[in-house]
Amino acid sequence: MANIYGYIRVSSRDQNVDRQSMAFQALSIPEKNVYMDKQSGKDFDRPSYKRMVRRMKAEDLLYIRSIDRLGRNYGEILEQWRILTKEKGVDIVVLDMPLLDTRRGKDLMGTFLSDIVLQVLSFVAENERTNIRQRQAEGIAAAKAKGVTFGRPALPYPDNFQKIHREWRRKKITLQQAADACGMRVGTFYGKARRYENTNETKTGKNQ
After folding, report:
1. Is 114 a catalytic residue?
2. What is the secondary structure of 28-54 as a DSSP string?
3. How far is 188 from 76, CA to CA, in rounded Å?
4. Model confidence pLDDT, tens digit, residues 95-129
5. What are the chain's domains?
6. Which of 11, 40, 48, 66 is catalytic?
C-alpha cells in the first residue's frame, strides 16, 4: 500500500515552519510521515531527508511546499528528483507549482513540460541562494567600512598593562614574565602589545 509523505526544510532553527506544516495537515498526511530538517538547502546531506528516502518505495507520494524547500543547489535538486522519480518510483507534488505533479501528464509531452519547469525553478532556487550570499558579503563589507566589528569584543587591558609593557620593551622582563604579570597567555599579551603600540602610534601621528 502506497504511503504519503511530507518534507519540510527551513534554513535555521528559529525559522517558522507553520506554513509548511499547515499545508500538510490540510492534506491529512500522517504526522509520522512528515520529515523536517532545520539546515541549509545547499546539499542533501540532511538526516531527516535521508531517513525519509530510505523508507520510501515505489508508488509512494511526496509533497513539498515549494521547490526551494527541497533544496537550493540546481544540480543536486535535479539529481534527487531523478533518484526519487526514476530509481525509487516515487511521485512528487510541489504544492505552489501545480505543473510539478508527477502523477499527471506521464506521457511524453507531460514529462517534457515538467522537466522544463523543474529545471527553471531549480535554477531560480540556486540563483536566489547565490544572491543571498552576495547580499550577506556586501552587507558585511559595508558594515566594516562603517567601523562595525565582528566577533568577540576584545578584553580590556589590565590595569598594570602599560607598566608591564614598558618594562618588557626595555627588556627588563621577558615576554613570558610580562604575560604572567598580566594574567595572559604569551600570544594574547603579544597581540595586545602590538594593538596598544599601533593605537599609540596612530594617536601620536595625528597629534603631530
Report:
1. no
2. T--GGGEEEEES-SSSS--HHHHHHHH
3. 44
4. 988 878 888 766 555 555 567 777 776 776 677 66
5. 4-142 (3.40.50.1390), 161-207 (no CATH)
6. 11
